[in-house]
Amino acid sequence: MNYILTENTTPLLEAFLLLGNIINDNNPKEQQENLLKCSTPAATQVAMKLDTPIKVYNSVKEHISSNLDRLNFFFKTWEDPHTSLASLLFASTLDTSFNDQLANFKAFSSEERFEFLKGCVLSVGLDENIIDKNNPEYDMIKTEKDLFNCIEKIKDLSYEHKYHLLLLYYHFEDLLQELHTILLDTLSIMEPFFREMQITITDFVEDFKRNLTEHGLYFFEKEFGITLKSDKLKIYPTFNGFNNLILENFLGRGSYDHMFLGIYLFEIIRLKNDVFMDEKNLAPFLKAISDPSKLEILKLLKYEKLYASQLAEKLQISNATISHHVSTLLNLNLLTFEKEQTKIYFSLNKEKVQIYLTLLQRVFE
């Protein structure tokens, strides 16, 4: 599978994603607070990385001069949470610039203009039976009447958004120009943060490239169960979409599909997976600490590292029994160990204990 990895900040994409977050109340502060509730060093470390996305979000929200009604018109998501009028317009510019797209559009013949707008309008992603370009029905849409009948048949799309598709069809050039102006206005507010954003994206790219070199795009499926069907892909690491993965396929226009990949997505997924595994072990954890000997072992190892015979001596039980208790606690990741010469010393895994206690608290909140 072929791919191109963009290594630099993509300013217009960052503005597009940020305005979508603002209009749809996707405040990174909430994500940070959720991470801090995990009360683990790993979660806290990721949470602190969100300080700059929070500053960018607040700065743009406070200073944006565009009319709020127009921002809602463009960026408020539709029935599909990744679809908005802005996304339909923005996707058409991914293989070119806004200015080039406008110039191309003006140069289109009437037939080319219709085919282009048909692709824009039917890229809403809500009814594959209608919008799939490989479906013979797609080629049967020859006239405006055919297209409008097709829009009417799109399932799970409100009349308001069907009307917006008609506006897109009739006013594409004006809407694209207005969206571009809004994004440029947003970029002027974001400019003081560009250097820090680029440093962060560079760090992500260096690590991500190593995974791609070793596994290719199979890395997504191997690590996170994400199957990519595209033969060709452009990957855009995103700062303001830090916890998102969005795929854009503009109905085959251009040579590549496009992925907007959040720079902290993998870390957040790993944290969530860890929490899920810990939830499965919550009952075994409670069973373990209900045993007086196992609980005493945990208490002893809170202050010092000890090897098996020392634990046996302090608890006045056999080495065999200590071995059984330690094995159970190790399986729950409640203990860590290290070898020093011929002895294996055990320590309390305080971070894992805290995870279990936090999960238990959530059960009764």
From TrEMBL:
Highest rank taxon of the organism? Bacteria
Q: Which CDD domains match?
A: HTH_ARSR (cd00090)
Task: From the Swiss-Prot or TrEMBL record, give the protein name.
Answer: Winged helix-turn-helix transcriptional regulator
- A Pfam family annotated for this UniProt entry: HTH_5
Q: Which UniProt keywords apply?
A: DNA-binding, Transcription, Transcription regulation
What InterPro entries has UniProt attached to this entry? ArsR-like_HTH, HTH_ArsR_DNA-bd_dom, HTH_MetalResp_TranReg, WH-like_DNA-bd_sf, WH_DNA-bd_sf
Q: Which organism is it from?
A: Zhenhengia yiwuensis
Which PANTHER family does the UniProt entry name for this protein? ARSENICAL RESISTANCE OPERON REPRESSOR, TRANSCRIPTIONAL REGULATOR, ARSR FAMILY
Where would I find the HTH arsR-type domain in this sequence? 271-365
